[in-house]
Amino acid sequence: MSREQAPSTTEAAIRATGNRALIGYLPVGYPDQATCVEAVVALAEAGFTAVELGVPYSDPGMDGPVIQAATQATLERGFRLEELFQTLEAISARTDIPLLVMTYWNPVLRYGVDRFAQRFAAAGGAGLITPDLTPENAAEWLAAAERHGLDRVFLAAPSSSDARLDAVIDASTGFVYTVSTMGTTGTRADVDQAARQLADRIAVRAETLGRDTLRCVGVGISTGEHVRQVLDYADGAIAGSALVRALGEGGVPALRELAASLALGTLDGGPATPAPAEKGIPA
Amino acid sequence: MTDTRLRDHHGPWYGPYGGVYMPEPLMAAIDELTACYEQCRTDPAFQAEFARLSRDYTGRPSLLTEATRLSEQAGARILLKREDLNHTGSHKINNVLGQALVAQRLGKTRLIAETGAGQHGVATATAAALFGMECVVYMGEVDTERQALNVARMRLLGATVVPVTSGSRTLKDAINEGLRDWVANVDTTHYLMGTVAGPHPFPEMVRDFHRAIGEEAREQTIAMTGGLPDAVLACVGGGSNAMGIFHAFLDDAGVRLIGLEAAGDGADTERHALSIERGAPGLLHGMRTYLLQDEDGQTLESHSISAGLDYPGVGPEHAWLNDIGRAEYLPVSDAEAMDAFLALTRAEGIIPAIESAHAVAGALRLAKEQPGSTLVVSLSGRGDKDVATAGRWFDMLDEGAQQQ
Question: B366 CA to chain A: closest CA distance, Å?
């Protein structure tokens, strides 16, 4: 099942942290084009491993209220897809951390999958995270990603069957995006527990498939302590809404401050854990 | 291609349309629902229970009424399939009872739904009351204002109505919000999709629960006229009443199937809901279908006086029937629909839903082109909910009497 992949810059960047990666999500173009570039550079300077830019979309079925409000405001000020490529170019000129883009699939489909991949790679993009494209619908994208040397990151969920996890692991490069959803009554501890179990399941399935799959977890991370907790069982922590809120309320200075406190969570010195490189063995 | 009957076609694909384009967190629920529906489809006990509810609760079969005075005025023989006489006042109850039975088999205790005009929300709230389930209905804020009576009806039935303030604040945004709820609460909750849209198995399942509309209409027409009609007409938003009435006639090559899309301000304006005529293939709400979208693949807002047709996509089976030429999809503007609304009301004493008035308008137009033809019209809902809108449109409300 193991197959040779083009070397992934995202994967290399995560491994370079000793599998204690910190990834930040920001909507592209929010609150405006220039500030978005500064914000991403600020995350890079704060020690983030990679950044994921969300493409504003009219029907964001997977986003929570904070991100939804930001992307809707961005669309209302006239965001066009062309701005994504310009922003990627501007950021690439300032930092070389991997730039992933999270996008709903219709904008890519409308642009043309291969045409999008080509333009995206040329602008400095590292890969796509596709929340509403699962591996079974991704043949055209997988081929384009291969052609243009892009990572394709698919989502895994606590409800995913083993067979579905296998398909996600097999199709993903860079890492697998481990999501955990919070029910209306769910506490943070429950969500964290679900994410931990999922990360462990992915490690077991990956080992069965002969793959050394990295797992990054996004579960409403808003403090350095959350980051530390997630890195106890995963290879990377993904922060989103908290960063978007900070940028929206206090601009780049507030973002910088939060980014620094999140980055503290990547330092060793948390609870005693197995060496991160030995991931994949559930406790 | 195959020579199987169109009636035997199943999802998930309708030509290049349909499919399952859902986020991973919902795939397990979709798989579970698909497997459960496959069982229900062939399970005599399920079918018997659905038939019993349809008869004893909904009031099926619904009547086929010959619209004698309207026919005389129009110059064609117009037969009305009276889904407006169903319990809760529209065809929506057919699908809701079916899906509530499926949800019960899945062990779910909570129903969530989107609604545009409020008919589907009312039907879902009704089923939740009947089955003793919790119910949350998502409704665009714009629609809660133009359909205030239906909001009150849902609340009376014990449902929670959540006004949706994101995006265009209409039906498509209500679906987004419903899907978000489903992601978070999938263990206890069934998403009760109200039209033949969304990911498989919804388009097929919803169509199947509405199939009786066409099966009854076909038999009733033959009994009444001695033959098949020349055309069957229905309004199309997502397209559930149209799929329900078309289905029985799909393999009757001599019967024209005509879906009427809402043209809003007019087919030559930018304010319409003409997904098939003016849209392009794309992804929305888990399916590939015709979609109103801009060059960047952003969904465009649709416009219609009728909240139930105010949707920028359309069910995938309609997209396919259009492409293979089996059904035609024609525009009806707000003004044309409201003229038909008044014409039917005055000629027959039947106040239609504004959605259904689009189908009546299509029939009046076709009658001019083909005088003497026999036309079956899906009267998918009654107009009680639209009295305030119609009163304003025709300037029939007394000063200060506007219901709020």
Answer: 36
